[in-house]
Amino acid sequence: MKQAKLAAAISAACVLASPMAAAETDFTFGGYIKADVMFSDYSNGAPASGQLSRQFYVPGTIYGDPNNGKQVVDFQARESRFNFKTVSDIGGHKVTAFIEMDFFTHSDGNERVSNSYSPRLRHAFVSYDNWLVGQTWSTFQNPGALPENLDFVGAADGTPFVRQSQVRYTNGNWQLSIENPETTVTPYGGGARVVSGSGWVPDFVARYNFKTSDGGKFALAGIARQLTLDQNGVDSTDLGYGVTFSGVIPVGDKDDFKFTATYGDGLGRYLALNYANAAVLNASGDLEAISSYAGFVSYRHWWNDQWRSSITLSGFKADNDVALTGGNVNETSYSGYINLLYSPIKPLTVGVEYMHATNERQNGFEGDLNRLMFSVKYVL
Prior knowledge:
The structure is a single chain. By secondary structure, the chain is mainly beta. It contains 3 helices and 21 strands. It has helices spanning about 1-15, 50-55, 320-325, and strands spanning about 25-40, 70-75, 80-90, 95-100, 120-130, 130-135, 165-170, 175-180, 185, 195, 205-210, 215-230, 235-250, 255-265, 280, 285-290, 290-300, 305-320, 330-345, 350-360, 365-380. A 16-stranded antiparallel barrel has the order 1-3-4-5-6-7-8-11-12-13-14-17-18-19-20-21. The longest helix is centred in the N-terminal third of the chain and has 16 residues, at about 1-15. It is globular and about 60 Å long. Keywords: Signal. InterPro entries: DcaP. This is Porin.
């Protein structure tokens, strides 16, 4: 008992002596618990248990294995997440720290006994007035425009979707950032993806956010990046660039229309969860950027204060030079979603969603996924 009291006294003294004690600090714990049940039908056979496409829809991962059968059901709580945030006023400066984790993408657990999965880092950053340093959404992405779907991303084919470390400066409507570079390459004639962390030039992003008088919220962003490969005797660079426009348009009292449209050369991993690579090697061992474009539209209708539905259409296309890439590379991806969500109380949502996705390679090989998903989500 004496040791416990001594430890408490020491802890209190440390807190009082810390610089944070002199600051006005708000502490927030948040996140949500979400449980999913997914009935999936894969046209070419299901991926193995625990694989990424069994957790959420990722374009390019739905081709599967005929030996696994076509119809599967998955129960999971992997999307559940928790976060911790502090906001302090220190000497007239606003300082924010934020960290968040969930349990997706890992296959280190199993569905036989414990269903135990490691946490993964989603966000970890600190901001000081206008500056942000750490890992969070890429400035090239507008997460506020993502549709309200039960599937984790919700419009995976048609949206930029990247979290990564960066340094960002915000001034009014403008945001400028330098972000982690990473190049994905298709070998000459086709083959397994090559991932290159070579080079020392970061990705540069500029974004302008604005609102309209009727409550619309929009973002226009551009990116410039150096595509680099320095491996196995190949040393080549090329320029990558892209532009994306996204927004949320209010309709009536509560409905809204969300959209994103993106185009670029060498976007690679920034678009459609890296469905296509940023560049391909030519016969001379030089990089050539691959053009791609994508987009989605989503309309959400509130039936009343507790019931709502969203319908979403999403698509992606890569302009592959078949003479360089070969035919066994991803070309197009489309998906559609419709759902019905019910919130008897504000923090709790119960819903059902149907989705269909089609992926096609350059040689015409195609894979389809049909999924019926039931979810329960409670926001902490």
